[in-house]
Amino acid sequence: MEETKKPLKILMTAMFDFGHLSSCLGIGYFLVKRGHQVYFAHFPKYQSIIERQGMQFISLYDYADEGAELSDAVPRSSVNFKPRFERSLKMGPFESLKEQLATGAINTGFIKILDNYITENDIMHKIVGQLEPQICLVDYLYPLPWMYLVDCPVVPIKSTNPVGLYSRGPPPNSGFSVKESTKDWTEFKDINNEVNILILEKIVEIFKQYEVPLIHRDHVKDLGIYIYPEPIDYRELGPPRNRWVRLDSALREHDTEEFEIPEKLKDKPGKLIYVSMGTMASTVTELLTMILTPLANSPHRFIVSTGPNGDSITLYDNMWGDKFVNQMAILPKVDLFITHGGSNSLIEALAAGVPCIVIPQFGDQPDNAQRLADLGLGVRLNLHEFSDEKLLKAIEDVLNDEELHSKVTRASERLKSTDSRDKVISLIEELAETGSVLF
Prior knowledge:
By secondary structure, the protein is of the alpha/beta class. It folds into 2 domains: 9-80 and 113-184 and 207-248 and 418-434, Rossmann fold, CATH 3.40.50; 254-416, Glycogen Phosphorylase B (Rossmann fold). The protein has helices at residues 18-33, 47-52, 78-90, 93-103, 108-131, 146-149, 185-195, 197-209, 263-266, 285-295, 327-330, 343-352, 365-375, 388-399, 402-416, 420-434, and strands spanning 9-14, 37-42, 56-59, 135-139, 154-158, 224-227, 244-247, 272-276, 301-305, 319-322, 336-339, 356-358, 378-380. Helix 12 links the parallel strand 11 and strand 12 (356-358). Helix 4 packs across helix 7 (185-195). This is UDP-glycosyltransferase 202A16.
């Protein structure tokens, strides 16, 4: 990736979750390699990883008004995710949505995110005013008023499943297959809007406060970037929403250290399997316990990302784990990945050529799980259909499925040969330099 003649001043930010941050770090690193001056506004706990990519760190706290509500911890508590886990044990996404409507359940986690957003909006407006970047890149679940009030172009980044960008696709977070009946799609959308009415009202309130017209969150004026590999993108649904372009991955291969297989597992028999349920879902220790207990009877070896509450997780004789592990370094060493189905994890697995068993819980995870299942690149195992026997059978089925392995290998090779990175970076540069972009 060659440096450009005229360095740009670029500002980036992302919502607090590491998955969103990680995707932006990759894009920021690519821009730094092109010779640009990249600033990243975020929380201090991520300062070192941001600076390792060659970017200049800006602390959100430095621009917060005294007494302003701003936290880097919401909503990581199991209190926010345990009810969702318990619903997932009983039913799929559609039935869960119906129950939420019937019981009046509130998505407190996202309400807390929006509370953070109000303060973050003011902070980012200040930072842009003082820094005067030529372009901003942001990864939020919902847009904020500052994005429409500043004088430079603002490019939204979508690091979650992109099915919502396709007008002919199933509703986001439904886990519906593109190959099956569409009869429930409209009802799912309608119920989802009712269940999330408090979130919508909160967003409307925020935009009214700043006298900014509220537009669809996937509408972009100049350019939007969604991160999803071409081999698993929804090409059969036609083009995505206007002015959105695909970046096949934002992986930071340079940041990966070598992973040594732990001594505890090195000489044991069996295939090597990696288990991770993601940072948020792993706060619910019951989830990992449910998955790991039957694996104690498996003939294979397991590397486990135990998550922030790892001290409460029992690891058996055929397992090694830690609270935080280097997933990018581990994946090339393993034969199978048992995952929650977050988009970053799927992309990393595909890049490493590793098949997946996806056990989705919420958000875009059911969509990702179904996408892999539809394309024959993995297996979806729903929590409400979970049993010890089904998990152990799924492991053997995937390990011994030669056709599935061939498909994963071909998809991985296509991902590695993509030129989307240079194309997307060039579009960012064009927009920053000229104020518009031609497709």
